[in-house]
Design goal:
single chain, 202 residues, Nucleotide Exchange Factor Grpe, Chain A, domain 2, 3 domains, three-stranded antiparallel sheet, 6 strands
């Protein structure tokens, strides 16, 4: 048989082998591609989770910084406000020292008192704009967060722990304690101390 007759047979063999390879290759590549896709999807999910966590952390940091700025703005004047509340105390003491009879009979004393009252009103208006509130706990139950007990008073007819006298008012700034109120409270009687309460309405 000549070489020219052998060539078609060899070509047929090569075509058959190529066909087999073509049939096997797609299946093999498909399995490999599926694993690669799953791997990439897992990486994408992991990166997405990391990104979301980082975004949440950045947002939390931004909010904390904003709160810090707001607090600094609100409470930066606290030390100055403490000085001003002492001025308010002195204005009230000056007004309390003016007797009612003196106002009626002394025109100059009356004018002075009116001027001090106007100054006090302006000062409290400024306090209000700055978020400073006065604490006057007369008749309220003692609150250790806002009151400082200076003494106890017996036989007041009030429940034990009730504020019956305010020596010095307290103040808050934006809800935070600026100065405690100095108070005197009702002392528990013997019946209250023993856990027995007397019904005063009987």
């Amino acid at each position: 048989m000549s070489e020219e007759q052998n060539k078609p047979a060899e070509a047929e063999v090569e075509q058959t082998e190529a066909a087999k390879d073509a049939q096997q290759t797609p299946a093999g590549n498909g399995a490999g591609n599926g694993e690669r896709v799953a791997q990439l999807e897992a990486e994408v999910a992991s990166l997405k989770d990391q990104l979301l966590r980082q975004m949440a952390e950045v947002e939390n940091t931004r909010r904390r910084a904003q709160r810090d700025r707001e607090d600094a703005s609100k409470f930066a004047v606290s030390s100055f406000a403490k000085e001003l509340v002492s001025v308010a105390d002195n204005l009230r003491r000056a007004l309390d020292a003016v007797p009612a009879e003196g106002r009626e009979h002394d025109e100059m004393l009356k004018s002075l008192a009116v001027g001090v009252e106007a100054t006090e009103r302006q000062l409290y208006a400024a306090f209000d704009r700055a978020g400073i509130k006065k604490i006057d706990p007369s008749g309220e139950l003692f609150d250790p967060n806002f009151h400082q007990v200076m003494f106890e008073i017996e036989n007041t007819g009030k429940p034990a722990g009730t504020v019956v006298q305010v020596l010095q008012p307290g103040y808050t700034i934006h809800g935070r304690l600026l100065r405690e109120a100095m108070v005197g409270v009702a002392k528990a009687g013997p019946n209250e101390a023993s856990g027995q309460h007397v019904d005063t309405k009987a």
